[in-house]
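Moderator note: this is an archived Q&A kept for reference. The question asked for a predicted structure of one protein chain; the sequence and the answer are reproduced below.
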Amino acid sequence: MVAVFNKELLSWYLITLKLKETVEAGIQNSQSPTSARSIELPEQPQQQQQKLQQQPFDSLQVVIKDETDNFEEGTKSPESEWVITIKEKLDQARQDDAAGSWANLCIYRVPQYLRDGDDKAYIPQTASMGPYHHGKRRLRNMDHHKWRSLYHILKRTDQEIKLYLDSIKELEEKARACYEGTITLSSNEFVEMMVLDGCFILELFRGAAEGFKQLGYSRNDPIFAMRGSMHSIQRDMIMLENQIPLFILDRLLGLQLGQPEQKGLVAKLALRFFDPLTPTDEPLTKSDRNRLESYATTFDPLSDQGGLHCLDVFRRSLLRTGPQPEPRIWMKRWSHASRVADKRRQQLIHCVTELREAGVKFKKRKTDRFWDIKFKNGILRIPRLLIHDGTRSLFLNLIAFEQCHLDCSNDITSYVIFMDNLINSPEDVGYLHYCGIIEHWLGSDAEVADLFNRLCQEVVFDINDSYLSPLSEQAELVSP
């Protein structure tokens, strides 16, 4: 509604409008063949002004409105508009539910209850992979290196970029289904991101295995060289929110090699690339290496039992000969009666100090499978565990994946909680270090104790669903 500041000016404005309307109406009537009546002359301005002055001033404000005002008849009430909005949301929910396919969902956003203010452990600091952290300002510096990697691939293979774009376009729908929630990127933006990030990952994998110089990079390249920045990139690439579906990487590598449908090679390259993150420094035996090679070539990313992404491949390699429990069913997984984030429900075993007082002895077990703990004749044999500045983020992301993915055992979570139970103090850490069980590069034993005590604070876990439960029961029999 237009505010009236000068009554006289408003009156003249209305008179002008009335004159214009009257004249236009007279012209139309004169042009009509059926019009035989004379045109009534408009009132004089003085008469118009007198009539307007006789009207209450408030009534003028009702008539005068801004051009943007809506004069449509039958305007809906706010309540009816609210009901329409609710119905639209329900209709959108119906469409989402009908189109939603959770069969391929495997790349999750870390639940807020697990973050506990420690976002740095889950959010990439150097390079983004996939849509969750795509385009963030602090990660854009890596983008031009991604484009360099794509340029090197096309130059080496003498291929056109359209080949890659068209091929990944065929997998777009399946790739989108791997991510949680709606991805707002357009089709072209999503495909471009998959090609660019995927090719960057593959160049890092191949460079670590074959040598970056063989791929055409300078020995002093800031990214494509085995130097300090590589460790930070490795840690980012193992994060749950920073994953690319394995079948996308398989297709991109297959295009480079002229075998678009090949599978298994990316998993093998990934294991070699992420090997420095393995939480043990025990050397692999020859038989272990053979089993690892055989395991890496049997991945089928399109099956429920195959590798899903790099984090899943790495986790499977850690547990390659580990316990194989049946997948947990939904009701069992989320039963409030048996699965609560409560330290009393996570107490697998007493701490080192208490077990020692009860007569339990500790010895290092010689195996690279850090989770493979044994107890026999009063001796608890625990494999060597190497702890460095990336161990916390690694374990947190592995635990987050086990918490989110239904068809996934909780073996890493069980191991971490077991170690958390053993370690209550710096003295516990010191004794395990004395036994050769824990080796760490942190500042003090207190930092190691704090690391384990904080890893599973909000984790939903049931001791009855742990592969270490039988062992814990045996060890607890000797405790007071």
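Archived answer notes: The chain has 21 helices and five strands.
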